[in-house]
Amino acid sequence: MSKDLAKDLRTIRDFLRYAVTEFTRAELFFGHGATNALDEAAFLILEALSLPIDDINPWLDARLTGAERERLGDLIAARVKTRKPAAYLVNKAYIQGLPFYVDERVIVPRSFIGELVSHGHVGGEELDLLGDPNEISSVLDLCTGSGCLAILAALAFPNAEVHGVDISPDALDVARRNVADYGLEDRIMLHQGDLFGPLGQRRFDLIITNPPYVDAEVMETLPPEFQAEPSLALAGGPDGLDIVRRILAGASRRLNLGGGILCEIGTGREILEAEYPHLHFFWLDTEESEGEVFWLPAENLG
To answer: Which of 13, 70, 99, 106 is 20 to 30 A (C-alpha) from 155?
Structure first.
């Protein structure tokens, strides 16, 4: 943004209008916490100004300093030019209202499992799949990435020891930062390796996992915003279910009696049900998804 244009835009309202126009004209793609140009612009502006991100309206007529105008102008221009998700530009993403540090070493967290764990669908007053959350003593987060689900699990199950595994050392560096930000180093253990490989003989009351599940055809046509994310965290093989199959193959040996696995798979429900007719998948819907997350009790896995 030119300095002259930055001078013309004085208030948050001005920058919000300008950003929406620029994002719309550039035909940006959304899906990393925002679903449209207005929500993305509001998030970018509020986060850049260290304001609460839940409502931009109280701040619309606030006038900005020169430095603030310059920063917002640079961020709006960067979103259009680089096509990187806004979360990467401000190094922040939110799950269930909680902030997490992110950068290009991890995908922008957006798992439906966050809602299920935080709202008591797994252990608590809702579906009560595991009973009293205070009695859950061990949780495994496979493909932990930024560590956000491991952190949400630690908060939801206050007496649980949580283990997070990821094959990417870079992702684990981000996860360690987030774990430290929440002061959970004494309860969350992070491991580098391939799925269950680095865990020894440990068993768990609960396994949660948001593995790579994008199929090969979709990977070839991803918009630039998704191409900015590490492909290792997205690509799930020809039909998107290669990693899910490996998780199912090993999960029974890693669950305690009465435990279960919560897994997000995207749109592969029909493939999975046809391939595993002996497994009675219990599909959990969220506010924004239907049939993309399954629950399997340990006894169903054999």
So the answer is: 106
One-letter amino acid identity for 85? Answer: P
CA–CA gap between residue 277 and residue 62 (Å, rounded): 59
Each residue's pLDDT tens digit, 128-138 = 677 788 999 99
Separation CA 261–CA 295 (nearest Å): 6
**What percent of the chain shows pLDDT beyond 70?**
95
Helix, strand, coil content of the chain in percent (nearest 5): 40, 15, 40
Q: Would you place residue 22 in the very low, low, confident or very high pLDDT band (cuts 50, 70, 90)?
A: very high
Fold observed for domain 93-301: Rossmann fold (3.40.50)
Eight-state DSSP code of residue 276: -
Tell me which fold the domain 3-90 belongs to.
Helicase, Ruva Protein; domain 3 (1.10.8)
Phi and psi torsions of 207, nearest 5°:
-115, 125
Q: Which two tokens stand for residue 250?
A: 């090993």
- Angstrom CA distances, 96 to 88, 133, 156, stand at 18, 18, 12
pLDDT in tens, 60-79: 999 999 999 999 999 999 99
Tokens standing for residue 76 = 């709006």
What is the pLDDT, as a whole number, of residue 167? Answer: 97
What is the number of helices (H) and of strands (E) in the chain? 12, 9
pLDDT at 242: 97
Rounded to the nearest angstrom, the gap between the alpha carbon of residue 22 and the centroid of all alpha carbons in its chain is 26
For the stretch 93-119, pLDDT in tens is: 999 999 999 999 999 998 889 989 987
Half-sphere exposure of residue 124: CA atoms within 13 angstroms, side-chain side: 14
Q: How many CB atoms lie within 10 A of CB 207?
A: 25
Find all residues with CB under 8 Å of 23, minimum gap 6, and list them.
37, 40, 41, 79, 80
- According to the model, what pLDDT value does residue 118 have? 84
CB contact set of 40 (below 8 Å; sequence gap of 6+): 19, 23, 28, 30, 34, 79, 86
